[in-house]
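Structure first, sequence second, as always.
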């Protein structure tokens, strides 16, 4: 089996100008310091804690759940695991030393279409798991004292034919947890039924979470975050959230 064809464990930068600027902004955020809780991921993570006006309700929910834990959001839209891996290997996790890292990655590697054959599906799943292993490895190298919480990929209903691949990835990723420095969180039974159908109000587009969906994720995280960070403080010293550079730069 040539899993390298599908492996996303090789870092790859985004080459579009907007992503380059966003990376620079996230590196600057990392250098600011003061982050104890570090969120890493793609657009599902990003929309929860960014300044884009269209996602302001998500940011309000983010603050309600994480104020006092000094949380920094390092999600970027449309990133695959390989892109996230490149970002944390190129400045976004340098010298941050968070106490907890929350990872949600892989839905963009799953995509909206299943692999064309069982063999191809196995290679695809294996490659995605290898990528998540690489993310964990890099996080441990950059922040050796951090507790790492890997969140299982959420169900997506834009094409439910990919749900078996998501389940296989999540089953494999669950086995990466050691209960000491790496932990696995799966809240999918709170987001969807046993067939993977997302419950009413959990999403606006059958892929990204709504505020209601984010609250489910937050409630799943809360016991682990309280265990590792204690109760939230009355003050917060995390750097301010960033937004989509294309919304603010001159056209």
């Amino acid at each position: 089996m040539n899993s390298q064809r599908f492996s996303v464990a090789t870092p790859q930068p985004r080459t579009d100008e907007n992503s380059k600027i966003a990376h620079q902004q996230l590196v600057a955020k990392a250098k600011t310091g003061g982050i104890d809780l570090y969120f890493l991921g793609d657009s599902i993570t990003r929309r929860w804690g960014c300044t884009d006006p269209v996602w302001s309700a998500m940011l309000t929910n983010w603050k309600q759940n994480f104020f006092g834990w000094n949380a920094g959001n390092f999600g970027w839209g449309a990133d695959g695991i390989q892109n996230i891996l490149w970002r944390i290997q190129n400045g976004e996790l340098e010298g941050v030393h968070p106490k907890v890292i929350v990872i949600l990655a892989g839905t963009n590697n799953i995509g909206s279409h299943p692999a064309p054959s069982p063999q191809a599906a196995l290679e695809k799943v294996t490659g995605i798991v290898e990528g998540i292993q690489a993310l964990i490895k890099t996080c441990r190298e950059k922040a050796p004292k951090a507790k790492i919480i890997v969140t299982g990929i959420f169900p997506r209903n834009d094409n439910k034919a990919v749900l078996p691949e998501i389940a296989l990835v999540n089953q494999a990723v669950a086995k990466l947890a050691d209960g000491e420095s790496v932990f696995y969180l799966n809240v999918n039974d709170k987001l969807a039924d046993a067939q993977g159908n997302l419950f009413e109000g959990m999403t606006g587009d059958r892929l990204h979470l709504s505020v209601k969906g984010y609250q489910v994720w937050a409630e799943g995280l809360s016991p682990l975050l309280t265990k590792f960070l204690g109760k939230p403080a009355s003050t917060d010293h995390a750097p301010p959230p960033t937004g989509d550079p294309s919304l603010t730069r001159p056209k």
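Margin note: The two ends are 47 Å apart (CA to CA).
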